[in-house]
Amino acid sequence: MKTRFPGIVTELVACILVIAQIVVPGDALFHTWQYALALAVVAWLLIANISRSRRALFGISLFGALIVIADGFASGLLGPDTDRLARAPGTVAPIPDIGAAAFFSSATPQTLTKGDGVITIRRRNHSDVLVTSGARKFLGASLLTAVSMPVAYVEAFDEAGNHLTVTQPTGAAFLSPFLLFRTRQEIAGGTHPIDGFALPGGNRTVKVVYFTPQDVVRLHMAMPPSAAGQPAILYDVFDAGSNHSLGIGVAASGVQAEIGGVRLDATLGTYPQLVIASAPHPYVLMLGLVLIVVGIAGSFLEPDDGAMRESKRHEEQHGDGEHGVGA
Amino acid sequence: MRTIWAIVGVIIVAALAASFYLGGGPRRPDVVVGPSSLAGAPAASFDIARADGSPDALARYRGKIVLVNLWATWCPPCREEMPALETLYRAHVAQGFVVLGIDQGESAKVAADYAHARGVTFPILIDDQQQYGRAYAAEGLPTSVLVDRTGHIIKGVDGEMSLDAMQALVTPVLKSQ
After folding, report:
1. Residue among A78, A162, A177 whose CB faces B129 most closely
2. Cys-Cys crosslink for A89: which of A14, A43, A107, B27, Cβ 3.0 to 4.6 Å?
3. Lowest mean pLDDT across A16-30, A108-122, B15-29
4. Which residue of B has its CA nearest to A87?
5. How confident is the model at residue A195 (pLDDT cuts 50, 70, 90)?
């Protein structure tokens, strides 16, 4: 056991370093040279242990750990950086790196408040993979996760009550009333999700800021009692021609606000964003882990080759001596 | 033994160095998806209402060649395109061709008044949630999508089309199907 202890510890470190890529998917650390260097050092130690190993089966265990390290190295430094796909409900985004397309489920104001959006990954000649918020799905050497992000469904009306087209010239989808808040801005001592949209039919552009229920309380925002515990949205309405601000207002989710000659109504909720992170290939990782476990277990049942060799050599030397004396 | 260690060391260092040049870095940039990328895909259909309030959807036109035209009254190129769409519709309606004008995000009355004033006879649908606009990856207005009799997209076009361009798009399809 004494001789195997350093090897087992090194194997454990190797497993922790590599499985961390699955536990904390998409962390930038895994694409740094420091992480790769740590893997290389562990690989070196494993090789050193293999050369010293007195048991063949424990050597297999160390070899399994080397496979785990190679898997982690391939996905860590050699794998592409983490990518985040924020798309409007009902749209499709190609993912060329994995030869697939992500279909973002349709949503209504009601489903947004429930936050039950689904992303379907489709690949030619493969069955669909559904990614829901919080779930993790392997696709080859990629780990797909869905992270719930704030989203708003906005409706706009002119003063006569006519429905207005919402466009997002710089957004993820041009003809989408869903705001995805892909950027953040520091406001009043905190960073908040921000977005914007245009109302070409009403000659207005609108900048919006999303406030969580905690922000609403912290910033002492005046809200009706019925909106307690609800997120809120701040509108800054501009004239599209002159770019002059026509008014600023705050409203709770589902409450209409009349600002700058337009009536705005936003339903706030959550919708998944797809995170694609490089990850150790699961089959390769499993192979490595199985070899580690089988190798360690087997080494306890196996006689110590090194000790046997030592004993045999000792016996041979002892025997030679007797022959020598006899001769 | 020392030789083996040297070889192992060189392999590890080489792998580290190669990783800086061969792998890593950002993923390939997103492929831009516009209406032109939709050819061959099944055409998405959503249940919405006509300008007169009656229910309608693209799926109801299965068996016909359909030119879906996404538009809005505030969009100048959409307004300019409207007479050509009407001419095209009248020329081929007997051959199982239909133009579906799907207004994006406006009130039914606004769209209906506009279409009525210009003598539009093809169906006008009201998509107040702009579902067709998102599904057809519209990058602006107008956006037109030609759908075959089986409900698959033949071609998506971003921007205004002349009558000649519309004829060139639709006529071969009507002859072949």
Report:
1. A177
2. A107
3. B15-29
4. B134
5. very high
Whether A84 shows a pLDDT value over 60: the answer reads: yes
Query: What ipTM does the predicted assembly reach?
Result: 0.85
Taking an 8 Å cut-off on Cβ atoms, the answer to whether B134 and A88 are in contact is yes
The band of A301, judged by pLDDT with boundaries at 50, 70 and 90, is confident
Cα separation, A50 vs A42, whole angstroms: 12
CA dist., res. B23 & res. A78, Å (int): 4
Measured between CB atoms, which of B23, B134, B140 is closest to A90? B134
Amino acid identity, position B104: Q
Residue A55 near residue A294, CB atoms below 8 Å: no
Q: What is the DSSP letter of B165?
A: H
Domain boundaries, chain A: 5-79+281-322, 84-276
Residue A176 three-state SS? coil
Q: What size, in residues, is chain B?
A: 177
Q: Is a pLDDT exceeding 90 seen at residue A313?
A: no
- When pLDDT is averaged across residues A181-199 and rounded to a whole number, the result is 93
DSSP code per residue over A202-256: GTEEEEEEEE-HHHHHHTT----GGGTT--EEEEEEEETTT--EEEEEEEETT--
| Alpha-helical regions (H) of chain A | 5-23, 33-52, 56-76, 109-114, 213-218, 282-301, 305-326
Q: Which residues in A lie closer than 8 A to residue B70 (C-beta atoms)?
A: 175
Smallest Cβ–Cβ distance between B16 and the set A40, A83, A89 belongs to A40
**pTM of structure:** 0.80
pLDDT score, position B76:
97
Residues comprising chain A, all counted: 327
Task: Say yes or no for a CB contact (<8 Å) between B105 and A177.
Answer: yes
Cβ pair B134:A78 closer than 8 A: no
- Using the Cβ of B16 and the Cβ atoms of chain A, whether some distance falls under 8 Å is answered with yes
pLDDT at A317 exceeding the cut of 90: no
* A176: chain B residues, CB-CB within 8 Å: 130, 133-134
What's the CA gap between B86 and B118, in Å, rounded? 10
Ranges under pLDDT 70 in chain B? 1-32
Q: 3-class SS at B141?
A: coil
State the pLDDT confidence band at A326, using cuts at 50, 70 and 90: very low
Q: What one-character-per-residue DSSP string does B31-74 give?
A: PP--GGGGTTSBPP---EEETTS-EE-GGGGTTSEEEEEEE-TT
Q: Name the strand (E) or helix (H) holding B6.
A: helix B2-22
User: How far is it, in rounded angstroms, from Cα A97 to Cα A93?
Assistant: 12
